[in-house]
Amino acid sequence: MNYKYKIVDLDAPGTAWLYFEIDVFSHDNKEKGLNYILEVLTDISNKNELIKNKENWGAISYKKAEFLLENGFRYDLAYTSCENDTKENARRYTSRILDMFSALDTVCLSNTSSDLWKGSAGWNSITNHTFDLGVLITDFKKIIVTVFVGED
Fold first, then answer.
1. For residue 66, with 0-12 CB atoms within 10 Å meaning exposed, 13-18 middle and 19 or more buried, which class applies?
2. Which of 18, 26, 44, 91 could be a cystine partner for 145, CB 3.0 to 4.6 Å?
3. C-alpha to C-alpha distance for 7 and 103, rounded to whole angstroms
């Protein structure tokens, strides 16, 4: 696999922000492309002991990705009414990620499709932590993966 990646710190509490840049990506079919994205995610995860279970990722809308990112930066996953950061900072972190993409040219994935901060929440685990939230955004040239974790 031929790609470069770097892990970037946003100084957001309790989060890891991963930025993967793919050198050569020329699939004509997005389905084949998505499989390649998941293979890259698995490869990087194995090297860094970060994310597991590529089958636990499902498609979500760009708007849902924006919602999950903003709330992930703002609220604790274990104690969902507790704020980790201000609304303004959460929006700033989210914008910093989303500004790299056009909403029309992206595919977004997550390990949840529910609202983790209201009522009963469901997700498919992608880390060894008690609570986790992953959001992957790609335009098939670059990938941004944001992972939030929490413990009770």
1. buried
2. 18
3. 23
